[in-house]
Amino acid sequence: MNKLYIISPFVLFFIISSLTYSQEVNIVPYLKQIESGEKGKVLEKLKDLKEEYPDDPSVIFLQAVLTENGQNAVGLYKKIISKYPQSRYADASVYRLFAYYYALGLYETSKTFFEELKKDYPRSPYIKIAEKKIPAKDEVASEEKVEKEPPPPPTKTEVSKSTDYKFTVQAGAFSNSSNANDLKKKFDDAGFYSEINEKVVGGTTFLVVSVGKFLTESEASNFLDIVNTRFHLDGRVVPLQ
Questions:
Q1: In degrees, to the nearest 5, what angle opens at C-alpha 234 toward C-alphas 136 and 80?
Q2: Is the CB of residue 131 less than 8 Å from the CB of residue 101?
Q3: Are 87 and 21 in contact (CB under 8 A)?
Q4: Are 5 and 37 in contact (CB under 8 A)?
Q5: CA distances from 45 to 42, 198, 220 (A)
Q6: Residue 194 neighbours by CB under 8 Å, 6+ apart
Q7: What is the pLDDT of residues 201-210, one digit of tens each?
Q8: What gap in Å lies between CA 175 and CA 109, rounded to an integer?
Q9: Shortest CA distance to 235 belongs to which of 150, 162, 171?
């Protein structure tokens, strides 16, 4: 009996694009392996690919997909769209940047990448996926900094469920649970309240690590400086849902 194999939309996009950009390394087999849960095998192959094709944008994209640290992956995606804007996975890179910042709750930043996707890649299949995630105007959180007076950092024991907290600090978004748990443990060891929440964007699940709960945006902004400096992060203040 013939078996029916179902290919996900993302892999299908990659297969179609591989027919157009034959000059780049074909990474479709590796993307299919990742989707099948064989990430370790692809990581082993990535080292050879990087040595043989150090400047190939498709290989850089594969590296970004395999990079578990969100900020490091962001750097790779930005490299693709700045140096190789006509490459096979340039539009996918823009979309992944949109998804990353959306997962962090930075809707204004994510919208800039959505607009870039529409402007530079008007025929990209990712536009329709991203359109479903664009928030309404009243959902967009302000990304402007607030003047601050340093308060003491909140501790786990200071966070009461009955208090109507309004803001928190999103410290990072990860696709790998061990990285998210490692960061949370650092906060726990320091005595700070923290939590991990899942956020799904375009079929990708991010584990968002938040630290602290605050009554005012000013208090959260003050603590943000402490967290970013002490833990070498690039966190953001966001409203609590």
A1: 75
A2: no
A3: yes
A4: no
A5: 5, 30, 43
A6: 171, 183, 184, 187, 188, 209, 210, 211, 212
A7: 766 788 999 9
A8: 20
A9: 171
Token pair, residue 48, equals 């050879």
Token duo for residue 99: 């998804």
**DSSP category for residue 4:** P
pLDDT tens profile 7-61 = 455 555 555 444 444 588 999 999 888 888 888 899 999 999 999 998 999 999 9
The domains located in the chain, with CATH, are 9-137 (1.25.40.10), 156-239 (3.30.70.1070)
Give the pLDDT confidence of 163-216 residue by residue, as tens digits. 678 889 998 888 888 888 989 888 887 778 889 999 887 667 889 999 988 888
**Distance (Å) of CA 188 to CA 50, 183, 185, 193, 211:** 37, 9, 5, 6, 9
**Unique residue bearing structure tokens 């692809």:** 42
CA 73 from chain center: how many Å? Answer: 8
Angle at 91 between CA 88 and CA 96, to 5 degrees: 120
Whose CA is closest to 20, among 124, 173, 165, 157? 124
What spatial distance separates the first Cα and last Cα of the chain, rounded to whole Å? 50
Interatomic CA distance for residues 64 and 59, integer angstroms: 9
Is the separation of the CB atoms in 77 and 101 below 8 Å?
Answer: no
